[in-house]
Structure formats: C-alpha cells, structure tokens
Amino acid sequence: MEKINKFWQWFCDHNEQLIALGDLDEKERNELENALQYQLTKYCDGLSYEMGDPTPNGRRIIFSAEGDTDLFRFVVELVDNAPDLDWWEFVAFKQPYGTPVKVRFDKYTFDSSKMHFMQLENEEEPDILGLRVAIDNPVKDDDDQLVGVYVTLEAIMGEFDCATLVGYLETCPVPAEPFKEGFRPLDELPEFIDWFKRQRDAE
Asked: For residue range 187-200, what is the model confidence (pLDDT) as tens digits?
C-alpha cells in the first residue's frame, strides 16, 4: 500500500503540470512523461501507461500490465486506490477499440477487415481459447508478425480478455474461400468473444 500511496502522491503533486502536458515544450513534456513512467515502474516494474488526448470532459489515462497476467492485480490495486481528481479518468487495462482496426507493429500493418479467424477447440482445456488467424503473406517462424497479430487481437478484444482467454494463437494464409473453410471475418471477433464467455460461464 505504501508504494501505491507514493505513486499517487507524486501524481497529485504534479497534477497541474500533467494537466498542462500539451502546453509544455517537447523537452519538458518528455521529461514529465518519463518521470511518470519512472514513478509507475517504482510502484511495479512491468507496468506502462497510455494517456489519451484531452477532451471537454477531461483526459483518460490507462494503466497496463502489457498482457502479463501475473501483474494484473497491481493494475487493479493501483486504479482502485486512485484519488478523486477533477479532469482525470483512471482506467485499468487497455480497452477494446472495436472494429475495424489497423495496427502497425514492427514492419507489418494488420487490417482487421482483411483478416479472418476460426476457433481451435481443445477438449482438455475448454475454457482456453485457441485461434487460427488468416492473414495475407504469413511468414513462418516470424515472432514479430505473430506478436503483431496478437496486438491486433488485443486492440479488438481489450487487454484483459485477450490475456485471460487466448491461450493459443497461430497464423495461416487467407484461403481462397475462407467461409467454406470455416473462417469468420476478424471484425466479428467481439461478437464471438461474447458468445464464448456466455458458453463458458453457463457450464
């Protein structure tokens, strides 16, 4: 609890600077953003944050464990103990962006409207979701491409669902007739995830 209090005390002490972040010059802005990350790392190494653009209602800051489920509780505890500050919305975990999405990762660009998926069932672990994702020009044993696909799924599903539900992921080329092969458009993944969770919870 002491580390949480120290983080939020630092945040409150620098609240006015953080509110005016967009008005700072590049050097000051980078220093403040780096200082915020440093304080977050002091609380729990492995966490990160994303600060949204200001809106008439304030600004949202998302705290993330970068998909590491071992650190999820630290994200929850941090947000649960956030101070009630005007202009700020504190959110646990990266939220779903919805579909369609375009994600750039390393040298790759992933367009969800051109991708497809199918469920890979495992009778031994029915609560864990396996996915085969069809993409253009898959590269065998390219970890960066596979991570890029995962990041795309995370953008569609949100960090929490992606990390806790998807236990296996593989890629393949887009078939000439994907629907006949049992694939669905990746943009339908949110609907499928809702169905999957209802089925899981009903058992």
From this structure: 999 999 999 999 88
